[in-house]
């Protein structure tokens, strides 16, 4: 049975919070024209703010200016803003280092001294020394030197197997568009800039052939905007190409390997090179579902891409979209793949691709590691000497195991690793040493060294991370995992983090504190324990509790859990989130008028839908870069890929009727019917993932329905809780944002939450 969207009924409104806005402060919305969008024949829907879809339109630019002006006026009334900024700056000011990665005779890692805008890529020669994993090592790439404002970021880097060459991708202003460049790496790790420059790269592989002559990458046709406007356009991303670039050549001479065309114009391809360098492993995806085709492109004896080779020369191992296949390793023609084929929590199979009868018949392949009855297999890494390291997800936290690659046999579970999440793993099939970084809600984590050279994996602490903040006392913090009964009886896990007093002592009494509930619930993404200086600042500074809900639609319990929150089941996600909110109040984690919710992207949709459906439950909502126009999302940039999770209002009357009932833009209640919680929507002008028009149209509709339409009728609005938008320049969907912008944004968000919930600053000594 599909998840039923609640019928519209008379609802209780939001309570008045501690932050009030005079209705006459709101700027006039753009003209509400009689424009309609017709996703299905006879299914016309008003699209009155369609002019906000064009970021270059004067009316849109003026709207953004006026919204930011209003938001700044509101934020000036938030008393904890300066205190929060100071505390988060202190909490962020600690050395951050990634797990080191071996390539040839060199070791590479990222390091940030604390408050640098972007992390720097460094190298060391020989055995890695944890004491020298800092700014004293050899700099390979310092993105802080590439822009004055820190908005050019290093989004990915791919080394040749011997570490002699590096292809790296740069993003400007947070856009998904990348510029790929190439470095030579001399002895000692010294970089030498090369002339190669590749443009209009997006959602790309960077996979070197083992002859060091070139690499595979993905690009799209050049959009109809100038380079300085890249990332602000809204046109659909189609016709992706897989290209091969030979070092030293011009991009226009790159070899076209594959292109998405015709009915398959929205497909995307990934490429990686097998451990032995003899195959290019090619996967074709449509949308974001965990399914793909699997093809193997043979490379030459000298490990080069043969001249004239294209996708037509590849072997189709799997040519349907029934399951997902991820390359693990191979020994000649014997390949090992992780797959969810008839295994929603995933398993590991082995197949001999020299036998053509194995093509398209995964049910006949050898099972190396069977599906676990409870835990989800997240990834598998092959290591030297016939060893595997596997990562399982157990109740939303990670567990590592050491196994045999020959039999799949479990050698041992690495139980000495802390409870938390893997924040980085660097191992490969040519080495018996790997590094893994673990983190948790209350600790930035440590790097551990794994040694599989013996019969049993040895684990030792390699590098610990320490915070230099007097207010941070990990012994005073506590994390609980609770299980919430959702509307249909499903048990939904939720982590609750706070100080011992806020989480434990207030439960069951008359709580006066506030809670911030965060959720996502989509795209098979799991929310596992991770360190966040911004949330920790909220906990320490405002004395609040932070709850992380593991909603259906995510990947915490495998593909069945994911599918229970997509398409015609999407309402289950909203029900789960609302049930978690009710639990926090009922169980005494917060007062009934002090519950705030937050989410980003698909989580922004979650916040928008839940604010519309249950304005009485929440005091405040924070929606980052949310998908708010659910009837048209598929028409902008990469939105078509999300139809595998959301469905498409243009595909059927049934899907249209389902989506239109929860789409945040189309379900904003009138201020004459119900008052709304304090709300802030956030977006960036270079967000070409979830384009800004979603947030702009939603806030325009929200302000009109709650405030301006009432004033137009000559009446006084009841709504006093603020309804604002924060639109940042030179910012995208979130990745690559410089540290200063991160601190500023979080200070604005959490001081707004605190003021809206009448939560004072409680930390005396920052």
UniProtKB/TrEMBL annotation:
Write out the GO cellular component annotations. Answer: cytosol
Q: Which GO terms describe its biological process?
A: proteolysis
Q: Which PANTHER family match?
A: PROLYL ENDOPEPTIDASE
Q: Which residues form a coiled coil?
A: none
**Biased composition, class Basic residues, residue ranges:** 8-18
The UniProt entry's sequence similarity note says: Belongs to the peptidase S9A family.
Gene3D superfamilies documented for this protein? alpha/beta hydrolase (3.40.50.1820), Prolyl oligopeptidase, N-terminal domain (2.130.10.120)
* Protein name stated in the entry: Prolyl endopeptidase
Q: Which residue stretches belong to region Disordered? A: 1-25
- Identify the keywords attached in UniProt to this record, alphabetized: Hydrolase, Protease, Serine protease
Q: Organism's domain of life?
A: Eukaryota
Q: Which residues form the Peptidase S9A N-terminal domain?
A: 32-455
The record's section on InterPro entries has: AB_hydrolase_fold, Pept_S9A_N, Peptidase_S9_cat, Peptidase_S9A, Prolyl_oligopep/macrocyclase
Taking every annotated instance into account, which residue ranges of this chain make up the domain Peptidase S9 prolyl oligopeptidase catalytic? 530-756
Catalytic activity from the UniProt record: Hydrolysis of Pro-|-Xaa >> Ala-|-Xaa in oligopeptides
């Amino acid at each position: 049975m599909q998840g039923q969207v609640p019928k519209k009924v008379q609802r209780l409104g939001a309570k008045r919070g501690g932050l009030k806005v005079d209705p006459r402060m709101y700027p006039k919305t753009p003209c509400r024209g009689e424009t309609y969008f017709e996703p299905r024949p006879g299914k016309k829907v008003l699209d009155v703010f369609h002019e906000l879809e064009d970021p270059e339109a004067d009316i849109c630019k003026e709207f953004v200016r006026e919204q930011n002006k209003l938001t700044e006026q509101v934020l000036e009334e938030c008393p904890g803003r300066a205190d929060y900024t100071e505390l988060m700056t202190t909490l962020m000011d600690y050395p951050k280092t990634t797990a080191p990665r071996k390539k040839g005779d060199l070791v590479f890692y990222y390091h940030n001294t604390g408050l640098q805008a972007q992390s720097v890529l460094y190298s060391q020669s020989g055995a890695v020394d944890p004491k020298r994993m800092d700014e004293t090592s050899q700099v390979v790439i310092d993105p802080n030197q590439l822009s004055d404002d820190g908005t050019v970021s290093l989004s990915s880097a791919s080394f040749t197997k011997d570490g002699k060459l590096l292809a790296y991708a740069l993003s400007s202003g947070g856009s998904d568009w990348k510029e790929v460049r190439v470095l030579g790496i001399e002895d000692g790790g010294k970089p030498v800039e090369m002339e190669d420059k590749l443009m209009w790269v997006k959602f790309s592989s960077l996979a070197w052939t083992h002859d060091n002559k070139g690499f595979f990458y993905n690009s799209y046709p050049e959009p109809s905007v100038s380079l300085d406007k890249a990332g602000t356009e809204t046109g659909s991303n189609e016709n992706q190409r897989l290209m091969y670039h030979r070092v030293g050549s011009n991009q226009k001479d790159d070899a076209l390997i594959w292109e998405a065309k015709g009915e398959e114009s929205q497909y995307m391809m990934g490429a990686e090179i097998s451990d032995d360098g003899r195959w290019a492993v090619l996967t074709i995806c449509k949308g974001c579902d965990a399914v793909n085709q699997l093809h193997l492109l043979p490379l030459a004896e000298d490990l080069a891409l043969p001249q004239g080779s294209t996708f037509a020369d590849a072997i189709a191992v799997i040519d349907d979209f029934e399951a997902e296949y991820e390359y693990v390793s191979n020994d000649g023609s014997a390949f090992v793949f992780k797959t969810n084929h008839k295994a929603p929590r995933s398993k590991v199979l082995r197949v001999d691709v020299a036998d053509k009868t194995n093509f398209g018949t995964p049910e006949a392949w050898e099972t190396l590691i069977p599906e676990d009855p409870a835990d989800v297999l997240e990834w598998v890494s092959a290591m030297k000497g016939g060893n595997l390291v596997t990562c399982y997800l157990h109740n939303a936290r990670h567990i590592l195991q050491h196994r045999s690659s020959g039999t799949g046999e479990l050698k041992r579970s690495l139980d000495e690793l802390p409870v938390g999440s893997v924040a980085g793993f660097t191992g490969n099939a040519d080495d018996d040493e790997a590094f893994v970084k673990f983190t948790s809600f209350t600790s930035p984590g440590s790097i551990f060294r794994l040694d599989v050279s013996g019969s049993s994996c040895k684990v030792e602490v390699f590098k610990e991370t320490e915070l230099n903040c007097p207010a941070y006392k990990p012994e005073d913090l506590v994390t609980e995992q609770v299980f919430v009964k959702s509307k249909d009886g499903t048990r939904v896990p939720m982590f609750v983090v706070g100080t011992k007093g806020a989480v434990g002592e207030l439960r069951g009494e008359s709580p006066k504190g506030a809670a911030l509930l965060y959720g996502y619930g989509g795209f098979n993404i799991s929310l596992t324990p991770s360190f966040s200086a911004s949330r920790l600042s909220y906990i320490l500074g405002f004395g609040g509790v932070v709850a992380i809900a593991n909603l259906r639609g995510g990947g915490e319990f495998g593909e069945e859990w994911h599918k229970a929150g997509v398409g015609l089941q999407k309402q289950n996600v909203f029900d789960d989130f609302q049930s978690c909110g009710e639990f926090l109040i009922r169980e005494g984690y917060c007062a009934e008028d002090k519950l705030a919710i937050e989410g980003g992207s698909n989580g922004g949709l979650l916040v928008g839908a839940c604010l519309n459906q249950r304005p009485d439950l929440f005091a405040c909502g924070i929606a980052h870069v949310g998908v708010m126009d659910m009837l048209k999302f598929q028409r902008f940039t990469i939105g078509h890929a999300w139809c595998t999770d959301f469905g498409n209002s243009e595909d059927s009357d049934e899907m249209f009727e389902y989506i239109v009932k929860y789409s945040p833009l189309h379900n904003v209640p009138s201020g004459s019917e119900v008052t709304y919680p304090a709300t802030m929507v956030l977006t960036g002008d270079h967000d070409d993932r979830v384009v800004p028009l979603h947030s702009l149209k939603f806030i325009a509709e929200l302000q009109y329905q709650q405030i301006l339409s009432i004033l137009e009728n000559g009446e006084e609005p009841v709504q006093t809780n603020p309804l604002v938008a924060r639109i940042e320049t030179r910012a995208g969907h979130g990745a690559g944002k410089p540290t200063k912008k991160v601190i500023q944004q979080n200070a604005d968000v959490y001081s707004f939450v605190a003021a809206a919930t009448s939560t004072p600053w409680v930390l005396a000594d920052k």
